[in-house]
Every structure is written in C-alpha cells, then in structure tokens.
Amino acid sequence: MINLALDIGTTAVPESYLFYFLAPLSVLAALGMLLVKKAVHSALLLAWVMISLAIFYIAQDALFLGIVQIVVYTGAVMMLFLFILMLVGVDTSDSLEENIPGLRPVSIVAAIGFGGLLVSLIGRATFGRPIYGLSAANADGNAFGIAEQLFTKYVFAFEVVSALLITAALGAMVLGHSQRSKSKFAQRDLSIARFRKNNLNDAAGLPAAGVYALHNAVDVPALLPTGKAAPTSISNVLQARGDMIESSTFQMKSEEEEEK
Amino acid sequence: MQTSENLLWLIALPLFSSAILLLAGKRANSWGHIMGTIVSASTFTIGVVEFFAMQGRPEESRAVTQKLFTWISVGSFNVDASLLLDQLSICFVLLITGVGTLIHVYSIAYMSHDLDRRRFFAYLNLFIAAMLLLVLGDSYLNLYVGWEGVGLASYLLIGFWNQKPAYATAAKKAFVANRVGDVGLSLAVMIAFATFGDVSFSGMKENIDQASSTQLTAIGLMLLLAACGKSAQFPLQSWLGDAMAGPTPVSALIHAATMVTAGVYLITRSNFVFDEAPVAQLMVLIIGGITLLFGAIIGTAKDDIKKALAASTMSQIGYMILATGLGPIGYAFAIMHLLTHGFFKASMFLGAGSVMHGMKDEVNMRKYGGIGKFMPITALTFGLGYLAIIGVPPFAGFYSKDKIIETAFNEGGIKGLALGLATLLGAMITAFYMTRVVILTFFGNERWGHKDEPHESPALMLIPIGLLSVGSVASGYLLSRGESLVHWLEPVVNPLKEHHKELLPPIVVSLMTLAVVVIGISIAVVKYRGDQLDKAPEKVSMLTKAARRDLFQDDFNEATLMRPGQSLVKNLLNIDYLLIDGLVRAVGGVSISTGNKLRTLQNGYVRSYALLMVIGALALIATIWAVTA
Amino acid sequence: MAIANYLYLSAILFTIGAIGVVVRRNSIVVFMCIELMLNAANLAFVTFARINSNLEGQVVAFFTMVVAACEVVVGLAIIVTIYRSRRSASVDDASLLKR
C-alpha cells in the first residue's frame, strides 16, 4: 500500500512556496470574513479567498477553472453580492450578539469536530496507484480536455445544467418583480385624507410659501393675515435643516418709512 | 308428541305489538292502548282455543310442541327454539292472558291521564310476550330468555315514572335483586348441561338417572336461588315492596298475579330434579316457611296500602313455594293457590288502584277511612278478595290454602308439625293484617283531611275488577272439585308414587284454620275498631318497629352487601385510577414532556436547522471515521 | 510538499464556512459562507483530479460552479424579496415557521 499524501503525491518546490504563502493568507481571510462586522468587508475578504483559490487551481493544472473562478466568481458573483448589499443597505451591520442560547458554542464545537475528523480522515487516506499528474490529460490544453469531457461523457448533465441556469434566471426575475397590492396614492386620495382629518384647517391644502421677487421663495414662509409667518408653508426638511429665512426682511415698507 | 302452529302467535303477537307501539311514536298515541288491549285479548282467545283443544285430546297426547328454529348447534350441544304447551303451561297461559287482558282494559282508564300511556301499553305487551315465552319454552335456555324478558319488562314498568328518583332507584333495586337470582338460573343451566349434555325439560327428565344426587342438589339449589330472586323469597325478597313504585296495574299483573309466581312455575317445572334431591327440597320448604311468616309480619305494619298488599303477596308466594317443597302432591296445590291468588290478589290490587284513583293517588291507609260508603263497588269486590285471601269458605283461598296447610301437617314428624304450625300462624297473621287493611280503608272515621269526597271509578275499571272478583269467589271451588286440577297436572308432575297418608282428617285442619283466622280477625277488629288517627302511632313495640323497617331486610343488605360492595368498587376505582390510569398517564406525560423538549428544536430559526445539519454531518463523518479506523 | 495539503486547506475552509453559516445572522454573509464551502469543495475536486490523473474532478468542479451561480441568483432574489416585505436582512427575523 502506497501512502498517497506523504510518499508519492508531492509537488515541486515552487508550488510549495506558493502554497505556504497563500494558504495561511486565505485561511486568515476566511476567518476574517467570519469575524468582521460589516458585510462589505466580508465580501472583500471572500473575494480574496476566491482569488487565492483561483491561483491554486492554476497551480494544479486547472487553467480553465482558474480563469472561470476569477471571471465568474470574483467578477460576476461577488459583484452580485455587492450589488445586493447596496440594495438592502450597506450599513445594515450584523450585531454579533447571539440570541439563540447555546447555539454559538455548540455550533463551533460541532463544526471543529467535523473539520478535525475530516482532516484526520484525509491523513489516513491511502491510494492504490502512483500519481502521474495531469500532463497527459492536458496534452491538447486544459480547456480542450475539459471541453472533450463536457461534450461527450457529460453532455446530458451539461444540458440539464443549462436548463437549470435558465430556470434560475427566470426564478430570480419572478421573485424580483413586485406587484402593487394597492393603487398608488393619487391626488384624489390625498384630498379625501385631508377631509378625513379631525380639523378642517388644511382642507384646502397647505399654504404656499411666500413669494418675493428678491428671493427664491421655497424657504420663505408665507405670512398669515395677522402678520406672523406660517411654518406649514415650507417643507419640513428645510425647517429641520434650519434653512428658513425670516420673511419679515422682505416685507414692504409703509409709505411713511419710505419717505424718511 | 303433537305439534301445533298456534303457539308462535301467542308470543309473536304481543311482541310485534310492543315493537310497533314503541317505534310508531306519538302517531300511535290515539290508538296504541286499543291495539295493545286487542292483541292481549287475541292471545287470550288463542289460549282458550288451545285449552279446549287440549281437553279434547286423550291424557297422554295433550301436550303440543312447536319447533321454531334451531337456535344453537355446537358439537354435542343442540338447542332448538321450540315451544311446549302442556297441562302446566296452559294454566299459566290462561292466567297470564286472561288477567293480563283484564288489566289492559283497566289500564285504559287508569292511565288515561298519563301522557305516556302508549309506552305503558308497549311495555305491558312486551311483558305478556316475555312471560308467555317463559312458560312456553321447552328447555331451560328458552325459559331463560323469557325469564330475562320479564325482568326487563318489570324493570321498565317499575321505573315507568322514572322522573322521580325514588322510583328509578326502586326499578334498579328490583333489577339488581333479580340479577342475583338470574345468576342462579344460569348456573343451573350450566350444571345441567355439564351433567346431562342437554337442557330441555324432556331430555333431562329421561336421563335423570345419569345424574348423581350431588349434581341434582346443586341444580336444585341454583334453581331455588333463581326462584327466590324472581318470586321475592327470602333472602332476595327486599325488592318487592319498593316495586310498588310502578303504576298499580303493573303491581297487580306483574308483582302479584304473574311474574312473581315464575319461581313457583320454575320449581314445579323442575319437579323431576327436586324429587330426586331431598336436600334442595328441604331448602325449598325452609325458604317458603320463612318467607310466608316474614311477609305476613311485614304486612301487619305497613301503612301504604300497596306495600301491605305486596307483603301479602310475598307471604302467599311463600305458601306456594312451601307447597312445591312438599313433593308430588304439593305441586298441584301450589299451582292451585297460584291461580286463585292470581285472581284475588289482582282484584285487590286493582281495588287499591281504584281507591287511589278516587283519593288523588293517596296510598297511606291512615289517611283513608270510611271509603266504603263512597265506593261501594270497589269495597264489595275488595271484600270478596279479602274473604278469599284469608281463607273463608267457600271463597277461593279456602280451597287452595287449606290444602297446603293440610299437606304440610301430613308431612308427618317434627317437620310436618313445624310446617303445619308455620302455615297456621301465617294464616292467622294474614287474617289479622288483611282485616286491618279493610278496616282502615273502608270503615271507621274519614281521615283524608280535605273536602273532596272520594268518587267511584269509571266502569272501564270496575268491570275488570268485577270479573276478577268472580274468579276469586269461584275459582277455588272449580279447581278443587273432584280434584280436577290435581288430575289435570298429574302427567306433568309425577303421579303419586304412594298414596299419601292422612295424619289429620281434612275437616280437623279446616276447623283449625278457620279458628286461627277468626282469632286473627278478632284481634284486628278489637285493635282497629272505632276512630283512628291519621298518623301512625310513635310508641310501638320493637316488633312493630322492626316490621315497619321490613324486618331490617334493607339494613341487612346494605350492611352486608351494599357497603362492602361500594367500598370494594371504590378501592378498585382507586387502583384503576392510580395504577392503570397512572401508567397510561405516565406514558402520556413522558411523551408530552419529551415532545415539549423536542419542540424547542423546531424553533423556526434557520440557523438552528443549519446547526442540526452540521451535527448530522458530524455524526456521519464520525461513523465513517469509526468504521475505517 | 504533499498534495494532500490542498485537501487539508479545503477541509479547514469548509469548516470555517460551516461555522459562518450557523453563527452569522446577516443573510448575505450567510450566503457568502455557503459560497466559501462550495469553493472549498471545488478545491478538493481539483486536487482529486490531479491525484487521479484525469479531468473528471475538474468537470465536476465546473458543474459545481454553475450550480453555485444559479443558487446565488435565486438566493439573493429571495433575500431581496424578504427584505422588501420585512425591512430586514437578518435570518432570525424570518422565523415565521416557529408556530
């Protein structure tokens, strides 16, 4: 019995340097993805892990997959993730407080137990024949070899997967499409709502802002008959920002004052 | 043996009628009682036709049978549902249908104000059918069906007014007491099957030699137990007094004339067993003797007219049972007393019903008095029944009771003396309490305490009473003339093996009886003449107190049977509750609490499901790890 | 260096991804962790292809990528739909199955 991992299945020295350099970094990035608070940071760390993996693929004579990994995963899928993150709010940060009691320790213990057993199994695994690498299989080029497999032996699976892709695209469209359950709030509804209020003060609509030739009137309140400014005549936002100008500065002066 | 096709109709007609009346519901309210009565009258007609047909045949071939169908056929055990009409059954058929029809007629008037009259007639017809099946069955198993049927009808009729809890309880008490007797009958049937492999009367009679005397004694004692239950004999007598809760026609028909005499029929029918089982026969004598005195003593203290009559019934059936214990000669006299008793007791019960009808359903004799003036016909017929029961010649009771007393003395030895003295004493007490009933009811001062005068009952009630009175006057003479009934029954109850010796000449016994009867009457007259209070006196002797409490029969039953039974049931219930239910509940509780614990796993959080998947993967990989180690 | 080191790396990344799926509550991060697990599996497949000296492992990895892409598309669409109605991207808020 030949031990796969230790005796025969070894790599060239440059590849081992590459591995020893990138592998710890990708593990760290993965852990970071777990631990950082902001989803955007997680996404970036995941992109880093994926690029590392693409490099490993290429190092392992899987050129085609490495390119696909970078183009499809890191390019398309991760962009999709970021896009959705924008959509649902970049700053919806995940609170790291656990609200299901006991879940976190149990899950960490279980997962680490699982990983430990997996590693132990790999360590025990043996292989019955020597490893020649992929140079024979990749004689005509890696993409050619994979294409040969895909369009001969796995052609049916390939077609099924293409159907799956189309279905998924359609499904995403169906899910993304939202139909209004209520008709839009129109002028008529606004009018009805005003009359339904308890007081009829605003029944005829809010007063318009005061109009003065000397100033853009949007931030100048109208004047009530008593001579006071009417705050309801300008937008709440402008009031909150304090961008409100005292309308008295534009008040016409009486004739007597003019004469002086 | 000849066959007859008519016997089925005797049972089928009233049974169908009963079913129709019960199923038709309110629609039958207007005509139900008429149909019930007509059906009863037609059974009587069939009975009369069969009787004359039977008389026309020679003595050996008088009995007829009718096989209905094969009922049970299991291996060597074959029972046919077949009917037997012989000289003994025809007496009962005529009594049941005859008295039954009169009481149907009486009930039309008596129950006219009751909303449920239709149901009453349905039950009456059911009773007629069951009682006829009882006396017509040709095997103990067929008899058993009728036996249970009359028990059911009796239960339904005692509890007819079951809206009153006391009446419903009385019905239950009667049913339970009867059930104790029924156990005896079923055991007797089982022992008979084990012994003979056959439960028909004829089959057992032929093979009577096969059985050992022990087996016969066992069968006899079990049959006696059954008879005690149905005929209210000591120690199962306590239900009869309470059974008076039923409507008075029921008391007259079921609890005086017919059903309660089923025990006498059973023992007479089983004469071939008792003749070979002297121990059982002695027990029959003892039971009869005890009961006739027991009933008589209770009768002296009862103020409720129906209960007094019920006690009297118990006592008179004691006479009959005692007579059946006297062997071949006694059976005929038992049946004779049964028939005459059926007439005069039914007539007196109906008379009591008539008095109650006129007195707004008052049953307390202390609130009667002087009713004779207002209800002359009732008083007259009641008086005739009274003379018959105390045994004044030439009324019916004289012939039948006198013969029993005479036969008891003729038994000879200490046994004969004891039985004779017991029957004589019974006759004296009977005279006393019946005189008391008559004086308190029909003579003396008026004590009913309201202005409404009692009124005579309608003709529809009086005619049946009158006809029964004719029976109570004449039946004794007719049946004993030339010992006609004795000869009539000879083929059924074994003919006399030896000519019975006469220790005392009949005239001496008759004179002795008359003498004690006169003594009894005199005591009663002396004690109850003049004005009476409308309340029972408080200061009375211990014996009276005991008699008022039915000689502590209920207290005895309560102390020895009911309380231990109840505590047993209570304990069993506790065991059931704690142990069996506890186990069941424990299983349920464990399931529920496990479920509640497991439910928390299904908390709706996707992440916890993911955790479960991780744990599952861990388990899988651990298995692989362990297997490949 | 042993080729098996790639497998160890794959196992470690897979475990980290599994922990992330269970522990993180932001549904998008959960999805990223799932992607990490898929990628770890892909690394194992590629390594197996090399060990077995044929390209079948790479073909399987290719299929995995396609399926993962489908899954991401549909999964993110679901997240958006849930977010639209519940205004939250936390997986714990979507616990209507509780009762």
Description:
The complex is a heterotrimer of chains A (260), B (629) and C (99). Chain A contains 10 helices and 2 strands; from the N terminus they run ααααααααββαα. Chain A is mainly alpha-helical and 260 residues long. In chain A, strand 1 and strand 2 form a beta hairpin. The termini of chain A are far apart. Chain B is built from 24 helices and 3 strands. A 3-stranded mixed beta sheet of chain B has the order 1-2-3. Chain B starts with a strand and ends with a helix. Chain C is an all-alpha fold. Chain C has a single domain, classed as Helix Hairpins (Orthogonal Bundle). Helix content of chain C is 78%, strand content 0%. In chain C, helix 1 packs antiparallel against helix 2 and helix 2 packs antiparallel against helix 3. Chain C is elongated and about 50 Å long. The termini of chain C are far apart. The chains are: A mainly alpha (260), B mainly alpha (629), C mainly alpha (99). Chains in contact: A-B, A-C, B-C. Chains A and C meet through helix 1, helix 2, helix 3, helix 4 and helix 5 of A and helix 1, helix 2 and helix 3 of C.
- Structural class, judged by helices and strands of chain B? mainly alpha
What is the CATH C-level name of chain C?
Mainly Alpha
Count of distinct strands of chain B? 3
Mean pLDDT of chain C: 88
Strand share of the residues of chain B? under 5%
CATH architecture of chain C: Orthogonal Bundle
Chain-averaged pLDDT of chain B:
86
The side-by-side strand order for the widest beta sheet of chain B comes to 1-2-3
Shape estimate of chain C:
elongated
- Major sheet details of chain C: none
- CATH fold label of chain C: Helix Hairpins
Largest sheet descriptor of chain B: 3 strands, mixed
Basic shape of chain B: globular
Q: Please give the count of helices of chain C.
A: 3
Radius of gyration of chain B (Å): 30 Å
Summary tags:
heterotrimer, A: about 260 residues, mainly alpha, two-stranded antiparallel sheet, 2 strands, elongated, disordered N terminus, C: about 100 residues, 3 helices
Outline of this structure?
Chain C: Keywords: Cell membrane, Membrane, NAD, Quinone, Translocase, Transmembrane, Transmembrane helix, Transport. The complex is a heterotrimer of chains A (260), B (629) and C (99). Chain A is mainly alpha-helical and 260 residues long.
